[in-house]
Amino acid sequence: MATSVKNNFLNPALVSNLQQALLRRKDSVQEQQHHNRANEPTKASSKPVVLVTNGDGIDSLGLTLLVEALLCDALLDVHVCAPETDRSVCGHSVTTGETLAVCSVQVGGANAYQVSGTPADCVSLALSGALFSWSKPVLVISGLNKGTTCGYDTLYSGAVAGAREALICGVPSLCISLNWEKNVSCESDLKDAVTVCLPLIHAAIRDIQKGIFPKNCFLNIGIPSCPLTNKGVKVTRQSPQRSSLSWQAVSTNKNPSAGHYMSNQQSLGIMLAQLGRDASAAAAARRLNSNRKNVEVESVGVAGKFSSQQTIKKYFRMELTEKEQQDIEEDLDSRELEEGFVTVTPLSLYANVHMEIQSSVSSWLAIALSGDQ
């Protein structure tokens, strides 16, 4: 019996489709491999890694100018992680129990992330390894910030907190601020301030790699309001001054709007939850005090007495005012900055090692500024 053998050839159209699919898959794999290589740290490069943050927010000109200057000579691998909004007076607050939003951006040509948190959040998150491929930067810089960070103002400063958080995490750091004078300073002063601080930054990186940079402290660097005409660099001590806190009684219609309030919160979900809790608490309070009469007081010192059945509600707003000028000792940061010096103030986590650190920074600065390698 004759046997008929049929050829098992696939449909030509199907073959063509399979070939095209395989080619697309190959191109996709090659593209992914190229992308992965691009995102890997350059093993052949020995560029020191620098992390930059600030207190003024990701869009501040001082941050952009500093990053551009650090990248200019292509000697550093610069990365940025900074708050999405101005958090210059948030102190060393960190965000717990809430979700932070992190978005990739470009700042001055560097890869960057903006974070819906504080400067301390930004530094802690960046150093955790969750954002960048490197394990640890050589140096963390908080700057360039607008406004002085002298005296007790360092306790309120979000910019200083960014540098302090780096020290807590074991990374050397600098906080750099320009003595910005309202209605006097201009953008060109920020550029000049960057020019003035660059030698200190490069000296710090060089000596960190040599192992001779001062330890157990971070450096709070103040640039005078006229940077290019500065009188030199001085190691200074933290002064006992702070900006005056002026509390003003305001009327209800001057109270910050809900929009302003919400813009300062960390996420929409948290805001709505908080508003819900506030509404519930307010409703409970109204039920509890249904027989009490509410009296809103729009200023302090209102004459008259109120009965126990009345609730008094007042509104206040705090404003920071200029420091009061006093006859203070030489070598204190606020005085020397006003005199036109670039101030370098070592700040430590430990109060009992002040003199040792002061001497260490003085010795290092003398060598760094002499140009000796």
Automatic annotation (TrEMBL):
Its EC number is 3.1.3.5. Residues 25-46 are annotated as: Disordered. Residues 25-40 have a biased composition (Basic and acidic residues). It comes from the Eukaryota. InterPro entries: SurE, SurE-like_Pase/nucleotidase, SurE-like_sf. The keyword Hydrolase applies. The keyword Ion transport does not apply. Pfam families: SurE (PF01975). One of its GO terms (molecular function) is 5'-nucleotidase activity. Residues 50-242 form the Survival protein SurE-like phosphatase/nucleotidase domain. Keywords: Hydrolase, Metal-binding. Belongs to the SurE nucleotidase family. PANTHER family: 5'-NUCLEOTIDASE SURE, SURVIVAL PROTEIN SURE-LIKE PHOSPHATASE_NUCLEOTIDASE DOMAIN-CONTAINING PROTEIN. This is 5'-nucleotidase SurE isoform A. It comes from Glycine soja (Wild soybean).
